[in-house]
Amino acid sequence: MLIFCIIVYLLLNLAVGFWASRRVKNTEDFVLAGRRLPLALATMVTFATWFGSETMMGAPAHFIEGGILSVIEEPFGAALCLILVGIFFARTFYKWNIITFCDFFLIRFGKKAEFLSAVMIIPSYFGWIAAQFVAMGVVGQVIFGLPLTTGIWVGATLVMTYTLMGGMWSISITDFIHNILLIIGLVVILVILLSQTGGFAPVVAQQPDHFFRFLPVQHSFQSWAEYVAAWITIGLGSIPQQDIFQRVMASKDAKTAVRSSILAGILYLTVAVLPLFIALIAKSLYPELLQGDPKLIIPRMILNHAPVWIQVLFFGALISALLSTSSGAILAPAAVLGENLIKPRYPHLTDQQLLAVIRGAVVFVTLASVLMGLARQDIFELVGESSAFSLVSLFVPLTFGLYWKRATNAGCLASMSLGLGVWLLCAFVLNTTFPAILYGTAASLGGMLVGSYWEKPNKSNLMPLPQ
Asked: Most exposed of 45, 244, 336, 430 (fewest Cβ within 10 Å)?
């Protein structure tokens, strides 16, 4: 029954993708759903940006071992990101008729900045998408008994297929369905588990001191640096990401873009804590589950100790989260590759030809992410590196480009290059104990300031700043 229901659910996703494909007439339809999403759809599609493998499997595994301080990055940093986008970025971006995030760098800083930002954005997604595919492979192992490799390929093919058909229209409609199922499933499971423990108080009483502490236990410079790094990895690092941009920009107007992003952040924080509590209760009720892989504690508990209808609800919710996150993440770098790398070199491409290029890029991004997932299967590590990549290279030039008139082309290019270079050096060569992401962000800030004061502003830096 469980397998039958999941197969039907997956076929439903393909059907929605086929239906949505009939609404795709041009590139804007495919990438931004024609900029016509109402508040409910826009909120749901933005909420689904990261509600995937890390939220449902990675974060719960870290939470039951390290408490609140081990999950600052996700879900708290992720919720912070969506709220900041709504307050400081959504309204301004919506007023410009641009398709991708990199179009901002073209208008504000020129073609070199556009090219460099695209080169940096595209590979930053491979790790994120790979994490979702690995989680799909794990689900295939648990439910169907498939080898991990086979599960990764099957999940990737499914997501790629319905993303190819309908683009953001497919993602928007399926995300709406996914999220309803996701929220219902998690709430029902939590209520049932709490009835077995007699409430949450007995579970809390079993946890060690400082488990629910929100601030560092040790007041040392190193501990506070690690705490700040956890907040900003996704909290700031995912602001300059194409998937955020295209989901918010798919709204029907600027007011909807702002509201949907803020509401999505609040909804994300509310719903994303449910898997954490579910895992904690599972640890309390069935401690033997800790003997295996910690990220499988919830799936194993559901399979071993829940009736079939609960299994259908949970795995439907889990698959929903993975599909929602991975589909948008695949479309994002594909849109950048087509719009900001291919189109400038072939300016005579028609809109239909560009649409075909972006669809081809969807296939390329999927294959690259599958290969990374097969090579590296640590979900938490893949997700963290993906967000760090964009923080150290793109956040500073984006923010200064919007809010500092003095920012110049030289400052932008220096910020991107120095930030990424220093982070790579500290994280993978020197292996510094101090968070490498802070070194990279500081270098990015320094590059922006030095480069901007070294080069005089010119007429190419005339983008209107937000009012």
From this structure: 430
